[in-house]
Write a structure and sequence with these properties.
Elements lengths: L16 H13 L6 H13 L4 E5 L2 H11 L7 E4 L6 H8 L3 E4 L14 H4 L4 E5 L10 H11 L2 E5 L7 E2 L2 E2 L6 E5 L12 E5 L2 H11 L7 H5 L21 H31 L8 E2 L7 E2 L5 E4 L3 H13 L15 H7 L7 H9 E4 L7 H16 L1
Parallel strand pairs: 2-3, 2-4, 4-5, 5-8
Antiparallel strand pairs: 1-9, 6-7, 6-11, 8-9, 10-12, 12-13
The chain binds pyridoxal-5'-phosphate.
Pyridoxal-5'-phosphate binds next to α3 and α4.
């Protein structure tokens, strides 16, 4: 087998020369905070999301938090979500004094099992927060059906889903509220950042207050040369979670390239899937549901036979310079969630089953075919031991 000199990391962002030049232009312009480039990024994102209003934030987490505030989630409320996600999804609910009510996942798609949502609804339920895990769109129709019948809001955690599509429609172009992340590990990046897509003007106003100190005008309006009025009012205590023009400068170029980058990710995912298909009893990739969808190709994840085997597998690959990650540990197993909400091991057997066995293989735009061949050969070697 060929020897790979460098470590193959799980994920690595691709940055074009144009992006670097744009960042330098912003640095030299004298304006680095939220300003014209952030506005440009927001209008390009809006175009990408079918003309819907898109607001940028310092992170996807900040966007999720502000979206929950905007829909009025407060102490004592409940928000239904999946335990099989990054902790940000539930942390933002807990931060507001509300309870994240977990609903178990499907063992094959790793997404929330919509059949179990209705039983988890109570008089305190305010919203459902599905997560498009790895970039595979959740089966949204039944979820919106429950939400419509019960008068609940839906905030889609679309951190993995830039460019994903459900039944022919891109995630973000329809539905209630979607929140995307531009963290460098995601499919497109702005170094750190995220955005919220929504329709209600009243909620847009609340988001912009939460994003910037509760001040009712943007700093750009106040200090740019066309500013009409330098006075402002503070109508609520808000956070400081705006995106900077430096971040947006990266984002505008990444957005131009994201469809091409996702196509490459899907090509590499298909290559993993095809080459390892004879091993599927021992190494079972995320299932393909029977509705029409486009996967963003954010993560390539698969299940091994047991937790011990998974841990051996990860160590075996690491020794051979291949980075992997076990995304995710189900959230109800973390001490804070157990102490605060009374969750315990055994509550969500499918999430635990997947959490013990899951592994994500390296997947990034710059992963080369020969590197991927090496990864697949190494996996075969592991199973031959
Ligand atoms: C990354 C991620 C977030 C948070 O996004 P940040 O931009 O890192 O704050 C939220 N939910 C999920 C599922 C994520 O993977």
């Amino acid at each position: 087998m060929q020897k790979v000199e460098k470590f193959i990391s799980l994920a690595k962002p691709t940055v074009s020369d144009e992006t670097i030049e744009e960042v330098v232009r912003v640095l030299k312009s004298g304006w680095m905070a939220t300003g014209p480039i952030t506005q440009k990024f927001e209008s390009k994102l809006s175009e990408y999301f079918g003309g819907r209003t898109t607001m940028c934030f310092a992170s996807g987490t900040a966007g999720l938090h502000a979206a929950l505030i905007a829909i009025g989630v407060k102490e004592g409320d409940e928000v239904i979500t999946t335990p099989f996600t990054f902790v940000a999804t539930a942390n933002v609910v807990a931060m507001l004094g509300a309870k994240p009510v977990f609903v178990d996942i499907d063992r094959t798609t790793f997404n929330i099992d919509h059949n179990k949502i209705e039983a988890a609804c109570t008089s305190r339920t305010k919203a459902i927060m599905p997560v498009h895990y790895a970039g595979l769109p959740v089966d949204l129709d039944p979820i919106y059906d429950i939400a419509n019948r019960k008068g609940l809001r839906v905030i889609e955690d679309a951190a993995h889903a830039v460019g994903s599509a459900y039944k022919g429609r891109r995630i973000g172009t329809f539905g209630d509220i979607q929140v995307f992340s531009f963290h460098p590990i995601k499919n497109m990046t702005s170094a750190e950042g995220g955005c919220v897509v929504l329709d209600s003007e009243a909620e847009q106003k609340l988001l912009s207050l939460q994003r910037f100190h509760g001040i009712d005008r943007s700093i750009w309006d106040r200090f740019s040369k066309n500013a009409s009025n330098k006075r402002y009012d503070v109508v609520t205590p808000g956070f400081k979670s705006n995106m900077s023009d430096l971040q947006a400068a990266i984002g505008v170029h990444q957005l131009d390239e994201v469809e091409k980058m996702n196509a490459r990710r899907r090509y590499l995912s298909d290559r993993y899937r095809a080459s390892l298909s004879d091993l599927k009893d021992r190494f079972a990739p995320q299932a393909i549901p029977n509705y029409d969808f486009v996967h963003s190709g954010h993560l390539f994840s698969a299940l091994l036979s047991s937790e011990t085997e998974r841990d051996d597998f990860m160590a075996f690959l690491k020794e051979r310079s291949i980075g992997t990650i076990a995304y995710y540990t189900p959230l109800h197993l973390f001490s804070y969630y157990q102490k605060t909400f009374g969750y315990k091991e055994g509550d969500f057997p499918n999430a635990e089953y997947v959490g013990e066995r899951v592994v994500c293989l390296p997947l990034s735009v710059d992963l080369q075919e020969d590197e991927q061949d090496y990864i697949m050969e190494t996996i075969r070697e592991f199973f031959k031991r």
